[in-house]
Protein 1
Amino acid sequence: MKRRATTEYFPGIPRIPYEGPSSKNPLAFRHYNPEELVDGKPMREHLRFSVVYWHTIRGKLSDMFGEGTAVRPWEDGSNSLELARTRVRVAFELIEKLGAPFYAFHDRDVAPEGRSLRETNRNLDAIVKVLKEEQARTGIRLLWGTACLFAHPRFVHGAATSCNADVFAYAAAQVKKAIEVTHELGGAGYVFWGGREGYSTLLNTDLKRELDHLGRFLHLAVDYKRTLGFRGQFYIEPKPKEPTKHQYDSDAAACLNFLREYDLLGDFKLNLETNHATLAGHTMQHDMEVAIAANALGSIDANVGDVLLGWDTDQFPTNVYLTTEIMLSLLKMGGFTTGGLNFDAKVRRESFEPEDLFHAHIGGMDAFARGLKIASAIRRDGRLAEFIRQRYGSWDEGIGKRIESGKAGFRELEAYMLERGDAALNRSGRQEWLENLINDFI
Ligand code: XUL
Ligand code: CO
């Protein structure tokens, strides 16, 4: 059934047009031009923007010192199914007006929790019906689904890593349902973010047992995915801390090690979040390169933190240098397959009007469109890649080639160096020149 939304929830805000860099219209894109070709591929396909349900539709803009400030005229203070249906229409009007091709949600963002798991599942089914209608009406697709295994008090000690086996079972039932729903909605992927999979103190924690349980949980999910015939990509999303003092999936390298240790690497890729990398003490490009090296970069949660603050501020990205770095790594990898740029970001508590949701996304989308164009220009120019190629030139011939191909052992290397007397002279890393080169394009 194709039902058109009858009420407009963002009156006065049109579908956001592309007007080019000289436009002064705050509700227009200056750089994101979905059909414009970059390296022969439309921007829309390079960037695969996704809007998140949790911050954008459910975020109240509260913080630990005060209640939410968000003005959302459709909210009636209830947590009814009727309101949940309305929120779907709101979400799709917003996403459609932004022209983003994807969205993402946790099960509990879209439908209220009932008094029992059975009732909760029924609520979810009722809303999935509406999501399906709106997907069909607009052509907007689900980038990934996920389960909220951290908000309800039952998850106080974690979900898959809880000391309470019943909580593990509840989480399994919840994830089973969330995967089914993601499958039904044609989701391109499914994310596991270990909301409270970690610890606050090792005094009460059997770390090895908890990690074993997490490994078991993910294997059960993979088994069920196969049974169901869900073809979407599974992702793990690293984050080092918050809410716990230590999250097991602390960064890309820790996740890859965990996946290898529990024989899960073939079934998972990483969903990297920019500010989670910052909180882990890395740059986003660092975590991306670590994931790419393991052929495990899947998708990106595109937000930023505030480097002066040590917590997850989930802000919209506006820094063109950052988006350039991200797009350089992404283009080098060959672009997304199942993943996308998912705005896991929220407007500031002070930006409480509905219109601010548009300014935030427009800014993030334009920042990434610029990053894409700049990265593509840097690659076309070729000097950066050529510098790196030359820097490693000693590995393309002679002794370097013999080492890389596994032909030279320690004896041969000793004989080689005894003959030469010393290593060839090193050349400058030219960091400052390379930084200048990048700035020439920004
Ligand atoms: C939390 C976070 C989550 C995941 C999905 O920091 O990033 O919203 O993206 O559970
Ligand atoms: Co995230």
Note: The pocket of cobalt (II) ion (ligand 2) is lined by residues 237, 273, 301, 344 (CB under 6 Å).
Protein 2
Amino acid sequence: MSPTNHQFRLAARPAGMPKREDWKYTEEPVPEPRDGELLVKVLYLSLDPAMRSWMNEGKSYIPPVGIGEVMRAAGVGRVVSSKHPGFSAGDHVLGVFGVQEYARSDGKGVTQVDPRIPLPVYLGVLGISGMTAYFGLLDIGKPNPGDTVVVSGAAGSVGMVAGQIAKLKGCRVVGIAGGPDKCRYLVEELGFDAAIDYKSEDVKKALRTHCPKGVDVYFDNVGGDILDAVLTQLARGARIIICGAISQYNNTGPAKGPANYMSLLVNRASMTGMVVFDYAPRYGEAAREMAGWMAQGKLKSREDIVQGLETFPDTLLKLFKGENTGKLVLQVARE
Ligand code: NAP
């Protein structure tokens, strides 16, 4: 009997929070690579808030996942067989392999990784999350030593890296996150100067306390009310990085826009959207610098690893319920 490949295929476009029935759990024989292709056994998958927006119809920075298609996901795996000149069986690779156990690939967008580094790190600090934090903060936020940098979604995958890089650049860093455990983690383990628990504190008031000179850089992962609160506390010349708006991704209506945007005018401030893929030619530069910081103990990684492909629909929801700390990763198989 040929081995089986289990997959999650998109079955419906969700309204609001996705449900298990929005995907179909399917199985088919593991494919054989054709000439110029490789077959990858998927070991770890990256779970990203953006997966929710890929389920929607409509124009975005990337086409939506089609109904019936394997749900898109980045992952790390091991090449099991190859008819591609650039890859050999046994290589460890990073690519967009989809929510499935085996992926056949033509090698486009697939890169080799060094298995001496724990593989989930390639989905976190050394992956898209790290790249987003690095280029969003440094290229758009342009932090100067002594600046006050506020990061929302601060205990999540992108936020924890953005805040740590801001500390490395000599900034005062204030994180916004949900719950006392995450806030403690930010201050005690990652060295943030302060953390605001948006679930129990008045964010505007807390920002006034922790950012007495105003906010020079705001790295926004959540949008909505928190963005509006930060807008009221900007310093002159502030830079806001619009990285994401997770508080709005499951809205059935339009996203809630910022009411306090006139603060941009008053403070000669700017708000800039970023898409990490624009920085692809410079990923190597960022990865080298961040790997160096990690080796020197100046940048910490943290992955929240959940076992089992079949848990995918429930595990993805952890992002929207705030149940992850650090990079949420699905372990599909053991080596
Ligand atoms: P993450 O922060 O690891 O996980 C999501 C976190 O968002 C949750 O843990 C939760 O933390 C918080 N959250 C969920 N619902 C919320 C709400 N209603 N209000 C406030 N916070 C809420 O996810 P990530 O992968 O690092 O992504 C963070 C952001 O970056 C997302 O908006 C994502 O879309 C964006 N992103 C953008 C790019 C780009 O190129 N622009 C690339 C990658 C990611 P709490 O417990 O603190 O609520």
Note: The CA atoms of residues 154 and 175 lie 5 Å apart.
